[in-house]
Predict the 3D structure of the following.
Amino acid sequence: MRSRPPNSLFFYADESDFLLKPLLGRTYQLAGKQSRVPATFESKKFYCFAALDIGTLDVVHITRQRKRSKEFVEFLEALLRRYPGVLKIPACADTQASW
């Protein structure tokens, strides 16, 4: 984007899922011996909404427990709080559902 109107910004925005759970994979053990694998049995998942200002490379992000339109609106409100004097904040976001 070569030029933009005064009091405006342009962002590329996307969301991502993070799943935090213990990794159980292949391991080596001595023949006849059984290895113990510690596991917390806690699986946590959260979502991150982020936007990159292509002019300044500034990143704005929030993390939430759910990914619904309500959380996306909270993300847009976070953008408005971060840039209070900006009149327009166009964003390029994908519309592909990830679930």
User: Anything to note?
Assistant: Residues 11-22+42-93 form one domain. The beta strands are 11-20, 44-53, 59-64, 91-93. The chain has a mean pLDDT of 76.
